[in-house]
Amino acid sequence: MATSVIFPQGTLDTFTVTTTGVPVPKITLSGHLPGGVKFVDNGDGTGTLSGVPGNGLGLVGDYPLTFTASNVVAPNATQNFVLTITRPPKITSVNNATFIVGTANTFTVATRNTQPKTTLSYTGNLPGGVTFVPHNNATATLSGTPAAGSEGIYFITITGTNGFQPNAVQVFTLTVQGVPPVTHAPTITSADNTTFTAGTAGTFTIHTTGTPTASITLTGTLPAWLTFVDNTDGTANLLGIPDFGGAPSYSFTVTATNGIAPDATQTFTLFVDNPPPAIISADNTTFVIGTFTSFTVRTSPPVPSATVGFTGTLPSGINFTPNGDGTATIDGTALAGSAGSFPINITASNGTLPDATQLFTITVQDAPPVLEAPAITSADSTTFTMGTAGTFTITTTGSPTPTLELAGAQPAWLSFVDNTDGTATISGTPDSGSDLSYDFIITARNGVSPVATQDFTLRVTPTPATAALVNVSTRLLVQTGSKVGIGGFIITGPDPKKVLIRGIGPTLTNFGIANALQDPVLELHDGTGAVLTSNDDWKVPQQAAIEATALAPPDDRESAILLSLQPGNYTVIQSGKNGTIGVGLIEVYDVDVLSASQLSNISTRGLVQSGNNVMIGGFVVSGASGSINLVVRALGPRS
Known about the structure:
Layout: E1 4-8, E2 13-18, E3 26-30, E4 37-41, E5 46-51, E6 61-70, E7 77-86, E8 96-100, E9 105-109, E10 119-124, E11 130-134, E12 140-144, E13 152-161, E14 168-177, E15 184-188, E16 193-197, E17 202-211, E18 215-219, E19 226-230, E20 235-240, E21 249-257, E22 264-273, E23 278-279, E24 284-288, E25 292-300, E26 307-312, E27 318-322, E28 327-333, E29 340-349, E30 356-365, E31 372-376, E32 381-385, E33 390-399, E34 403-407, E35 414-418, E36 423-428, E37 437-445, E38 452-461, E39 468-478, E40 485-492, E41 497-504, E42 520-525, E43 531-535, H1 539-548, E44 559-565, E45 568-576, E46 582-590, E47 598-605, E48 616-622
Parallel strand pairs: 1-7, 8-14, 16-22, 24-30, 32-38
Antiparallel strand pairs: 2-5, 3-6, 4-5, 6-7, 9-12, 10-13, 11-12, 13-14, 15-17, 17-20, 18-21, 19-20, 21-22, 23-25, 25-28, 26-29, 27-28, 29-30, 31-33, 33-36, 34-37, 35-36, 37-38, 39-46, 39-48, 40-45, 40-47, 41-44, 41-46, 42-43, 42-45
């Protein structure tokens, strides 16, 4: 929770104080609040600081406060807090004026008294002959003789600044006419009364008519919580949060003036109703046999205080005592043999209907509950399989029963459910795009320190596949022209297939091939013969992605292409850079075994020689079960 807040004068603001603790804490405030601002304990572990700070330079400044939260479990929690009241600028003159062509006119822009003084400026276009002059006394003068032909309506924006936010902004309308306007004395058109409720923010708008626009004033003794604001557009607002226990009504005189006699006056009455009572304390408490315990029933509003009573049966040794101040005390020492649950109905009345009622439960225990900090007892990892529903139960110990939370980026397919019994369930069916590992932090808490945390890893393993062709390769002597290495492969099935194509050369020297191709180059064509892509040295530009497959070529000069291909026929051409020749290896790897499509064919065309220069084909069949049927063909001259 923040340790400070700023409330500008004339503006309704609110700040919420939050707490934690079991039982729910009561919040109290010490320190002096400015007029118009009040604090209310909401009875749910929160409190509200709100109101419209009263006008006046004397109220501006810092108000040091202290919030205290208490719930019979030591120690109490306290926080030092600063409420700052500022007095931002406000333009108090009306937002329009009418000037006459050829006639000297003047209008004064006025602001409320502030420290430092307000500085005025404007943006927009003025008619010829009219100027805007700011003064060092927080006013400005709009004056001059409008030039012939300048009739019309001019909108300008007047801004007041004094270092406090928000700045005052007024859209001002200057009307230039050839003849004087028709004037009308002001009239107050709004109701002569309204009703606010104590403890609740209220507002009322006063409306007037008249030409020019009327200024509105309010005379009478305003309570500290009430603010009056002339909106400078022929309306004004009354706003504030009435104090509890204040006067039931206030009488004022509203006056509207616009320079045209007679002024309009209205006797205005503001009524203040008291709200009905509310019970703001918890709806249960626990007693232990043989131990004195006390619980306070609390109500709002504080004034007039409610009369608190109950109906029902109390445990032996327990008393219910109304205190006459809006509270009641449930206390005593529960006697042996009184263990159990005792529901009672608590009522509160303060003369305003409806009365408040609460179903309250008193629990009597044989022995005090044992408090035990939470501990996570389940394993810190588990493994799910792609395509298969998985579940894992998190278990804990502790008293009271801990609640569980899971922090970390969860994939869309994963669900986490706190079962509210000290366990939680992680479940879901990993999809084919899942990462192979997810890291989370599990937190268990029950109000007893310390909180338990566990670093948890969810591993995902691919679905065990049936037998499939996952690698095809050919080794041959790569020459130039029509004698380069040409490999073809086919992808069959409904979906794209991600493959890694490798062109191996220098690495073959490790296997006794003296004339290995030293710098292989790959070129991939689709079924129409169009070139899809090519690669010389595999680290450019796919190094990271290729390394992630764990199938990166051993030598930097070797080539590799990683991409997803639609079902169809493809051709790979392997050649030597700059026309070099040597023994090379063309390989195609299936790196997406979960895809429904398959590698179903490889063919290689090249010059078959003898010794290390013969053509060698290889393939890998992988899978957890089953087998595949293969046909191996060797084709030569055809007639």
